[in-house]
Amino acid sequence: MRTEMLIDGEWTTGSGRTFATRDPATGETIAEIPEAGTTDVDSAVQAASRAFESAEWADMLPAARARLLLRLADLVEEHTEELARLETTDQGQPLGISGGISVPNVVDHLRYYAGWVTKITGITAPVSLPDVDYRTRREPLGVCGLITPWNFPLMILVWKLAPALATGNTVVVKPPEQAPLSTLRLAELVRQAGIPDGVVNVVTGGPEVGQALVRHPKVAKISFTGSTQVGREIAAEAGRALKRVSLELGGKAPSIIAADADLDAAVQGNIMGGLLNSGQVCAAYTRFYVDAERHDEFTEKLAGAAASMKLGPGLNEDTQMGPLVSGEHLAQVERYVDLGKAEGAELRTGGTRPDGELADGYFYRPTVFSGVTDDMTIAREEIFGPVLSVLSYEDPEELAARANDTDYGLAAVIWSRDISTANRLARRIKAGSVYVNMPPMLDAAAPWGGMKSSGLGREMGWEGIEAFTETKSIWTSLA
């Protein structure tokens, strides 16, 4: 596959500098990738700007644009196995996730937004002026910068790319430097699908490349998924430039286990919700509020389930949990575990790297703490790794306040056989998505995003169309 950047339909090494992308299961270099300079970013934005104004793209009939998205979806589906293995090799997630969740989700999003292309409508409204006709139309924003994270590089890219293209925008993509390969392979498929040159451009590199993209005056919108700290910086830059921005940021999802919960179902759902992709999920269930009478039983079962998980390279069929994405991130997870122990939490399982044949990779054992209190660092800060904290509660009336006592508000879950109680509690929790008796799931038709420090705006559903368009009012005198 190509490992260069794609700018205006041409593959380029840009400045000539490179960086390594590594297999997190072994630490070995997979490929050397170009490090874009500011001139490369400018070339990509200028190419996207020209493509946005070109008759080939701007005047393309909606049905024709829909066919391009459907063709791209077909190509992704045809290359599912290849893309899944590439994502697993570069990012670390087990094949069951990359092939069973990530790539199918990409196909679903492309087809879902292909269906919207011919259905984007404005309104007419009865204004209180004589002899005036009033209507609105939704129009694309222009050049959109798409900055994507390393935990689900391909899937989250298409959450942004599909609605951006469906609404007639052009894009410059900055994939994560830790895992850029699936994005570059998708760029090849974009060309194969027949999407015009310059409509989709890809520049690779580290934070400086993202900064150059955010600051470019011809970029009309930034869509970013990543850390809250970086999201704040992007929002500040975008605010000064009066540039559109949407942010999907961090999370610290509470999982509430009521006294009447099906404990075995709650344990399995929380293992899936907390340790999927080695816990490298913004919506991961990470702090568990358990009724005091069931605290010990739940903790024992949760620790047992976590300890039994099979660690290994994502390409191994029997692997249940793969490595963390990088050595740097592994060290950060270890730091949080050390803080948990230092602050008095009880380590029930995990808390170490595996040895033997996994020692060279970025593996970390699933870790469960009990005796955690609300003020501990591991209960308050996003760890983004396989670390689960169990807290207890006595009074159900305190649950909403404790669940909401966080800077984040991306997701939450409630486990209870009493659906009325669960839904009343769901109304009180400040999170973009609240699940009842299930792990965190996503669908192209369901809006996704966070409250508070978990972000601004929504992706997916009709909200994804709104995020990449603006409304124009057209007034016509009938006199």
TrEMBL record:
InterPro entries: Ald_DH/histidinol_DH (IPR016161), Ald_DH_C (IPR016163), Ald_DH_CS_CYS (IPR016160), Ald_DH_CS_GLU (IPR029510), Ald_DH_N (IPR016162), Aldehyde_DH_dom (IPR015590)
Gene3D superfamilies: Aldehyde Dehydrogenase, Chain A, domain 1 (3.40.605.10), Aldehyde Dehydrogenase, Chain A, domain 2 (3.40.309.10)
Active site: E248
Transmembrane segments: none
PROSITE patterns reported in the protein's UniProt record: ALDEHYDE_DEHYDR_CYS, ALDEHYDE_DEHYDR_GLU
Domain of life from the UniProt record: Bacteria
This protein's UniProt keywords: Oxidoreductase
Pfam name, any one: Aldedh
This protein's record includes keyword Oxidoreductase: yes
Domain (Aldehyde dehydrogenase): residue spans on this chain: 11-474
GO molecular function, one term: oxidoreductase activity, acting on the aldehyde or oxo group of donors, NAD or NADP as acceptor
Family: Belongs to the aldehyde dehydrogenase family.
Protein name (record): Aldehyde dehydrogenase family protein
Species of the source: Halostreptopolyspora alba
Taxonomic classification: Bacteria, Bacillati, Actinomycetota, Actinomycetes, Streptosporangiales
